[in-house]
């Protein structure tokens, strides 16, 4: 006749099972809270540009349209709000795709120096408007071939350089430094801007976290840029580092693999 396990061991099993179930419930509850907060955040963020555009349009309809100068000003502002809305939706789609693992990374061999030059060219107008000078430091002789997802790294560079301009002081400067090491490349984006307080520094990579909401929105910020940057670099087994002195400026930096190193490793593998 089979003997029953001792009562103590049955009790212990039940106890373990209950504890595991409790942990599961806690995780589900946390996810649910996170989801609810995220939806509340999104709704709020979407409402801001929509309300602004509606406001301008209603003012125009109430008679402001008669005065041509006022009409142009309000139409421009309404258009700007709708552009912000479009950027926000685009960033949300990107973030969602990355977080759900839907986006694939397609690494290729490309010249990181060229990407930086292209981003600088694209943002030159924005910098000039604020009287900001941009400097790019690199060594003429060095090879800056990187093995990474070119388009996504372009996005990272766009975000960091555009922030360095947005949060800079009038007539400040932005310095981008590219260094080649044996196995990797380092990019540093330095500004002379408002800087970031230590308590904010920990949180700026969270979605929708902004130190100054109004300033960020005024500049067309969505509050999602750095969250996207962080995810893209994680997708490359890299990460973003930041150091900042309030009132003086910030430095954002990251590393990418050097193409020659990757090809060497791949070559070694294929020889085996
Ligand atoms: P945003 O679209 O608001 O710029 P980001 O995710 O790119 O959103 O950045 C989050 C917040 O981090 C910004 O709102 C700003 O407060 C702060 N921040 C980002 N870059 C800088 C910088 N170079 N200098 C100072 N503050 C910055």
Number of helices: 8
Assembly of the depicted chains: single chain
Number of strands: 7
List bound small molecules.
adenosine-5'-diphosphate
Q: Flag low-confidence runs.
A: none
Task: Determine the fraction of residues in helical runs and give it as a percent range.
Answer: 55-70%
Q: Can you characterise this structure?
A:
This protein has 272 residues and is α+β, with helices and mostly antiparallel strands. The N and C termini lie far apart (59 Å). The chain has a 5-stranded mixed β-sheet with strand order 2-4-5-7-6. A two-stranded antiparallel ribbon has the order 1-3. The protein has 8 helices and 7 strands, in the order ααβαββαββαααββα. Strand 4 and strand 5 form a beta hairpin. The protein is globular, with a radius of gyration of 25 Å. The mean pLDDT is 91. The longest helix has 55 residues, at 7-61. Adenosine-5'-diphosphate binds at residues 159, 163-164, 167, 191, 193-194, 196, 204, 209-212, 216, 221-227, 250.
Tell me the layout of helices and strands.
Blueprint (H helix, E strand, L loop, with lengths): L6 H55 L6 H32 L8 E4 H18 L3 E5 L7 E4 L1 H17 L6 E8 L3 E8 L6 H4 L11 H6 L6 H10 L6 E5 L3 E9 L1 H13 L1
Parallel strand pairs: 2-4
Antiparallel strand pairs: 1-3, 4-5, 5-7, 6-7
Helix pairs in contact: 1-2, 2-7, 3-4, 4-7
This protein binds adenosine-5'-diphosphate.
The site of adenosine-5'-diphosphate has 22 residues, from helix 4 and helix 7.
Protein name: histidine kinase
GO biological process, one term: cellular response to phosphate starvation
EC number: 2.7.13.3
């Amino acid at each position: 006749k089979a003997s029953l396990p001792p009562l103590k061991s049955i009790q212990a099993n039940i106890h373990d099972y209950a504890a595991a179930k409790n942990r599961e419930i806690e995780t589900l509850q946390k996810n649910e809270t996170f989801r609810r907060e995220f939806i509340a955040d999104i709704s709020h963020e979407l409402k801001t540009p929509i309300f602004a555009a509606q406001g301008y349009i209603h003012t125009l309809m109430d008679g402001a349209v008669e005065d041509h100068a006022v009409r142009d000003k309000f139409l421009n502002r309404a258009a700007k709000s709708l552009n912000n809305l479009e950027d926000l939706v685009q960033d949300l789609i990107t973030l969602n795709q990355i977080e759900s693992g839907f986006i694939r990374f397609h690494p290729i061999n490309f010249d990181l120096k060229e990407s930086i030059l292209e981003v600088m060219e694209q943002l030159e107008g924005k910098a000039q408007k604020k009287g900001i000078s941009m400097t790019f430091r690199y060594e003429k002789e060095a090879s800056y071939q990187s093995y990474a997802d070119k388009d996504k790294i372009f996005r990272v560079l766009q975000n960091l350089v555009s922030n360095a301009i947005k949060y800079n002081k009038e007539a400040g400067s932005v310095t981008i430094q590219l260094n080649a090491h044996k196995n990797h490349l380092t990019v540093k984006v330095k500004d002379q801007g408002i800087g970031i307080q230590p308590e904010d520094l920990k949180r700026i990579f969270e979605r929708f976290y902004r130190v100054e909401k109004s300033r960020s929105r005024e500049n067309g910020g969505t509050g999602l840029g750095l969250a996207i940057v962080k995810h893209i670099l994680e997708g490359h087994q890299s990460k973003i580092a930041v150091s900042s002195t309030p009132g003086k400026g910030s430095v954002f930096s990251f590393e990418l693999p050097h193409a020659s190193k990757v090809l060497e490793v791949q070559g070694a593998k294929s020889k085996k």
